[in-house]
Amino acid sequence: MKNQGHHSRQERHVVRQNVKNWHILIVDDKFDNLDLAKTALEFHGATVRTATNGLEGLEALKTFEANLILLDLAMPVMTGWEMFEAMQEKPELAAIPVIALTAHAMAGDKERVLEAGFTGYISKPFSVSTLADEIQAILDNDDTQESAEI
Length: 150
Description:
single chain, alpha/beta, Rossmann fold, five-stranded parallel β-sheet, 5 strands, 15% strand, globular
């Protein structure tokens, strides 16, 4: 992935507006969630790859240049927390915006996710009709992703 750190916030904002530029990896162990999110985002023109656990997600990133990841936190084999931690150890992966996608919407969860370094947080069940808008709002509010190619 090319480093886009020289772009101003305004330039990144313009690029982010085009969902067709999104190359999204969705990692969730529930097929229904994967299918709904994939269908909703592909409808808007995004390129989507899916994985059913964190280990599969890391493997997918070896061949798929994602510029955004939607990551469930509670999964078998490797949790979203573990995948996120593994990504932070590799500079080329640490730069990818990661949005937690989880049904575990308990008090303090959102703060814990953001403090851990995730770009944002979307609670499940999510609305298929507003998922792309929710992602866009999170990306628009994120000033820390200088290298994001979204």
